[in-house]
Design a protein that fits this description.
single chain, Hypothetical protein af1432, 67% helix, 0% strand
Length: 368
């Protein structure tokens, strides 16, 4: 059932990177995957604009979403061990990877998901962008930890640097390099987005499982993917939904999460805050991408996500994400228990086939 698939996704909230090292920040697997998606989309957009080389955005994002399931299933295999195993014994690594995909294909899930699972296993040009983005994101995480814990991280930092140079040379270095002390505007943009890994949802209520805004971005993107398939959207529409989901909360890194009761505290405050947010996002985030034409599309998804063609379905995915997050906490929190009931009641008023499906086959396992 779909609950099994979703249980894997939410497992990623409690899988932390660099878990055997001292750390300045807790970066979950979902934080990492969401950040990798932003790195990959930004890099692919730059290359397309500068070099006229087109990548399949939908395939790129699907591959990143599904790649997390290796970590969800083999959470005890670290990034470094995974890389060395792949290099030392590629046949064993392939068997492990096949086990993940076979277990997914054995689930009782929609056939279009199974078709995609089979599709994303095929080698494509998008793999190079994804692999580099994962290495670059990993280097960024390690670098900042190494500023305090130098002895622990110095060998790992050097290993990642050598790996990037060995595998890609200077292929992508015109756009993203490994010099955090001398950041380009594109790197400043991405590093700003990564701050969402330190921004937590439901921040006024005590939680069992904290969910960062960056992790939430992965969750809502996956729900958007699932809802798009259940609503029988075509591949282009689903890709559009994934992009809206990926970008919709990015302004919070600049403005913070101003809750609805605050916005409605006095007349016209919500409208004024909205206008100020647009200016702030351009000043402190999108300004780093001003030389690129694709920044306009990024801005639209960040600032007006719910007004876009498939925005309502992505908003539905956002609501489902909140439902599951509230359910995780409801066992020990009366506040979250009431929040969960309220959101679920609201969902029953929606006339979407995906709502019935997810409530029937997804929520039951978690409730028990």
């Amino acid at each position: 059932m779909i609950w099994n698939l979703l249980s894997h996704v939410f497992r990623g909230l409690s899988i932390y990177r660099w878990n055997t090292f001292p750390r300045l920040r807790e970066i979950s697997s979902l934080d990492h995957l969401a950040f990798v998606a932003h790195v990959a989309i930004t890099l692919a957009s730059i290359i397309e604009e500068k070099e006229w080389k087109k990548y399949n955005t939908g395939l790129l994002l699907r591959k990143i979403l599904w790649s997390g399931f290796f970590t969800f299933q083999y959470s005890d295999i670290s990034s470094e061990l995974k890389y060395r195993l792949k290099k030392h014994s590629p046949h064993l690594y392939t068997l492990l990877e096949d086990n993940v995909y076979h277990s997914l294909l054995d689930m009782d899930i929609p056939d279009r998901l199974k078709t995609d699972i089979t599709l994303i296993q095929q080698p494509t040009p998008e793999d190079e962008i994804i692999a580099f983005s994962k290495a670059w994101a990993g280097y960024y995480e390690v670098y900042h930890n190494s500023l305090v814990y130098k002895d622990a991280y110095a060998p790992l930092l050097e290993n990642i640097r050598l790996r990037v140079i060995e595998e890609w040379g200077e292929r992508f270095f015109d756009y993203l390099d490994l010099e955090p002390t001398n950041q380009t505007d594109v790197e400043k943009y991405l590093v700003t987005i990564h701050r969402l890994a330190s921004s937590y949802r439901w921040n006024l209520v005590q939680r069992i499982q904290p969910v960062s805004v960056l992790s939430h971005t992965y969750i809502i993107t996956f729900f958007s993917y699932l809802i798009g398939i259940l609503e029988e959207k075509n591949d282009e529409e689903i890709t559009d939904m994934l992009l809206i989901a990926l970008f919709h909360d990015i302004p919070e890194v600049i403005t913070g999460d101003v809750i609805t009761p605050t916005k409605q505290a006095v007349p016209w405050l919500e409208k004024a805050i909205g206008e100020i947010e647009v200016t702030m996002v351009h000043d402190y985030l999108l300004g780093y991408l001003s030389e690129y034409n694709f920044s306009k599309a990024f801005a639209e998804r960040m600032l007006h996500p719910w007004d876009m063609k498939n925005g309502k379905l992505v908003k539905l995915a956002d609501t489902f994400s909140a439902l599951f997050e509230a359910l995780i906490e409801s066992g020990r929190s009366p506040t979250f228990k009431e929040t969960y009931k309220s959101i679920k009641k609201k969902l029953y008023t929606y006339e979407y086939k995906s709502v019935d499906y997810i409530l029937k086959y997804g929520i039951g396992y978690f409730e028990n």
